[in-house]
């Protein structure tokens, strides 16, 4: 992300945003989510861009980016792709989704280690987001099996079963428009994800490390076709 050089402080930015709420240019929910991203240290890399957007009074865009925290639904988390925002799919929200999956698996299973499979479709940013998700799962102590090239959701589901994985994640927006993206978890704990758990899964730091992984080989593809 290119780093702009805003001329306002975080306090001044929040004053402007609060005024935008008063003038019905920004929703209350967007303001609350925006406030977290402007003030909390885990969002520091996004703050110059946010301050610049506020200084430019781009409140319509900011409302789109922050009107909600994308919930976990039956199909995972899906939304518009953007460089930032609690209501969009971006590097941060993809990392949060992977963290949520790992944290919930550990809570559900009582285990500190396990195995995960990650796949992605051919959309723009899919491979990048998949690698972010894989690195977060690896940081949680899971061994990660990663598809190097684009795959379908059924292939990911097959890999989870065939490799004895505890969880999996498919980076895809399925049939949704090209500007959208999503993270669809799979595995035994996944059915228990629901909207009210979303906020407890967000953390102040997302750990990443290089994959404790294997690249899936043509052998798995052959086994699936048999």
TrEMBL record:
GO terms for biological process: carbohydrate metabolic process; purine ribonucleoside salvage. Gene3D superfamilies: Alpha-D-Glucose-1,6-Bisphosphate, subunit A, domain 3. Residues 72-187 form the Alpha-D-phosphohexomutase alpha/beta/alpha domain. Pfam families: PGM_PMM_I. Residues 174-193 are annotated as: Disordered. InterPro entries: A-D-PHexomutase_a/b/a-I, A-D-PHexomutase_a/b/a-I/II/III. Belongs to the phosphohexose mutase family. This is Alpha-D-phosphohexomutase alpha/beta/alpha domain-containing protein. It comes from Gimesia benthica.
């Amino acid at each position: 992300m290119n780093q702009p050089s805003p001329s306002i402080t975080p306090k001044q930015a929040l004053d402007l945003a609060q005024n935008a709420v008063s003038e019905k240019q920004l929703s209350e929910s967007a303001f609350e989510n925006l406030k977290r991203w402007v003030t909390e240290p885990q969002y520091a890399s996004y703050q110059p861009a946010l301050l610049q957007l506020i200084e430019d009074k781009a409140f319509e865009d900011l409302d789109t980016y922050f009107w909600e925290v994308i919930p976990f639904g039956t199909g995972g988390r899906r939304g518009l792709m953007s460089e930032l925002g609690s209501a969009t799919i971006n590097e941060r929200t993809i990392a949060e989704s992977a963290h949520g999956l790992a944290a919930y698996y550990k809570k559900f299973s009582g285990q500190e280690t396990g195995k995960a499979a990650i796949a992605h479709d051919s959309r723009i940013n899919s491979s990048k987001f998949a690698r972010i998700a894989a690195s977060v799962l690896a940081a949680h102590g899971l061994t990660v099996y990663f598809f190097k090239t684009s795959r379908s959701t059924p292939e990911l589901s097959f890999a989870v079963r065939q490799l004895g994985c505890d969880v999996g994640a498919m980076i895809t927006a399925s049939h949704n428009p090209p500007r959208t993206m999503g993270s669809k978890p799979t595995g035994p704990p996944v059915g228990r994800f629901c909207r009210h758990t979303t906020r407890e899964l967000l953390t102040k730091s997302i750990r990443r490390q290089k994959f404790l992984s294997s690249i899936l080989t043509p052998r798995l593809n052959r086994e699936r076709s048999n």
